[in-house]
Amino acid sequence: MAHQRTLRVDYDKNTQVLYVVGSKLTVNLNRSAPPSSKFFSVNCTPNVQYSLSPPPQETSHLSPLPLNPNSALLISMSRASQSENDSKLSVQYYGTNKEVIGKAVLYLTAIEISLDVDADRDGTVEKSNPDKGSWKWGPNGHGAILLVNCDSETTYLKKPDSESDHISKVSDLKDMSLMVLRTRGPAKLPEGYKLTMHISQGDAESVRVFRSKSSKVEKNMLQNLFSSFTKDYPLVLSREVLSQEVPYLGGEGELNFYVEGLRFPDKDFDGLVTINLSLLEPICDGIPETPIFTDKVVFRVAPWIMTPNTLPPVEVFVCSTKDNYVFLEEMDNLVAESGYKLNVCHEYMNRGDRWMQDEVEFGYIDSPHQSFPVVLDSPRNRGLDDFPYEVLLGPDFGYVTRVAKRKNVSSLDSFGNLEVSPPVTVNGKEYPLGRIIIGVAFPTTTRGRNMTEVVQEFLWAQKVQKPIALFSDWLSVGHVDEFMTFVPAPDRKGFRLLLASPDAAYKLFKGLQNDGHGDAKLFDGLKDEKPVTVDEILHDETLRSENNYVQSCIDWNRDVLKRELGLDEDDIIDLPILFKLERDEEDGEERRDEEDGEERREERERRDEEDGEERREERERRDEEDGEERKEEREGRDEERREEDEGRNEERRDEQEARRAAAYYPDMVNMIVLGKNLGIPKPFGPRVNGRCALEAEMCSLMEALGLKCTFIDDFASYHKMMGEVHCGSNVRRKPFDFKWWNVEF
Predict the structure, then answer these.
(1) What's the rounded Cα separation, in Å, for the pair 486 and 480?
(2) What are the residue boundaries of the Protein-arginine deiminase (PAD) central domain, all occurrences included (predicted)?
(3) Catalytic residue, candidates 150, 319, 699, 727
(4) Which residues are bridge partners to 495 per DSSP?
(5) How many CA atoms, within 13 angstroms, populate the side-chain half-sphere of residue 595?
(6) Is 342:718 a contact under the CB 8 Å cutoff?
(7) Residue 44 catalytic?
(8) 582-596 burial, b for 16+ CB within 10 Å, e for fewer?
(9) What pTM was computed for the model?
(10) DSSP state letters, 3-16
């Protein structure tokens, strides 16, 4: 729709008008007419077009037309002017006898102004796309896309580029969205007119705009990626600068702007930002200019997207600790055989923290012009805390995190508790990027552990992988990867959901017993581990009761996954895995820390003791300074706090008395998926005819899908510490071929 502008004109006076091609000027002829006017006529130069409303009855343009109270003149021009005031339109007014009683003359200068973006998402900034001012999802949608500039072009004293209000390297421009101001017209604007770019206060929190000083299109930008001439890209808009004049180039010109996303969609930000360009008209000295034309463009910030097990791997990450040499060697062999790269985080960086899956989740962001991986850093803040920022953040590798509102996060905030399904269709609704899966407390509980609110809000706000909440608080560590995973499959939906199943384990062991293998031993030959026979497992009524409870928890999640992912029973494979219930005296993550070594615990206790002594001395010093009265007041408050703390501690003790589950033997569902190769925790099950019966069953189930099983010995270095292969590794995968902006809502 053409931009409408009401224009005031005065009779017996010449008016200079700056017109923007594509708009319409409306003149109320009666309001601008001399008193006693009854008729009017209009004349103009060839570059000016006009129409009348209401349309006149008389057809001759030479005859004066009757002037009505609502007579309006609609003016337009088809092309830009070569020089100032090169077009003209006049309105002549007549009295009752058609005598001339006044004349209004407009001198028009036409310019073309277009603020352009890649609204059709083809990687090219087209001119004057009619859809540039709105945003629509789907393959027939439109609207420009913006990336959060969360990588770092520098490697020394690095930080995400979005935290800098300048361009450190010209290579940073490729992470931004190109926006072009195209103008055509006289060499300069009439005196006092100017172009201004502006954004709202709310959008200023989410976007920053730079411009090029050059009017030339950056056709050879790739040749200058590492240039340091950042002075050629001044800041235009930011949190501190909401409006700024921008140059009018004159003639036919293009001026490049570079738009930088500052934050991802979240609870308080829907991802949409609007940038405006206004033409301002002067009134007189001392009075602000007024906008006479505004063009706008709309961007959507690209969401952070997770990658499921069915996508091809790129590289694998593991930690090196003083006791996991066997695990590392076997993982190295598996990754090399699969044809991928293995990255080892050494102890100086991991500080004894081996749980690579818990610290980070790999994802990516994508646009028509640029795509790069982005690591989401969990709020767990343990030994690996520096790894994602210090090691991963860099050129074309982004970083994002969310800081928990509470100081003490739970084990459910670790990212073994964050997974994503392959693409699915549920009751006709397509999820072409899959659905995020998190673990929370059971809906009816009042004291369970949950993933921290800020992380859940972030995941929901990304929108394209609508999350599913499962019940995982029944587990000691509390992660969804302890009872489920996905593997690729050649048929049906292209994948299978694997679920841990105590029922499947008991069925397997009962079959072994019936075949005369009741005396076959689990854990046979393992150091410091007492062997257990199949008969002993089957006769242990307490263990059976505990696994009945575990199976009911998994079945509840099974029903949720079938409903939310549109799965049938044929899409699910049950893996024979037993669990045991243990008195949960502390959070599962804390238990992992305890298992990770006495040295780290003693160091933490030493720091706490030093901090406590320091705080005590500081309090005594303040007491002496403040006097007895304030001391008594503070002692009263301290007593109240102690009572409150005791109440909270009592609640926590009640919660910790709950019994939660852990794997009885290495949890085979907690695997690493590398294409058709699976790295599975070695279960050390009962051996029958020289082969582990659990391994044989696993191979039978997976090889039917064309998958190869490799069993990794993680017993001492991971399983005994409440984790397995998946917990101790992480995989960065290729992004989806499907473009997120084609999701239909």
Answers:
(1) 12
(2) 111-281
(3) 727
(4) 488
(5) 19
(6) no
(7) no
(8) eebeebbbebbbeeb
(9) 0.88
(10) PEEEE---TTEEEE
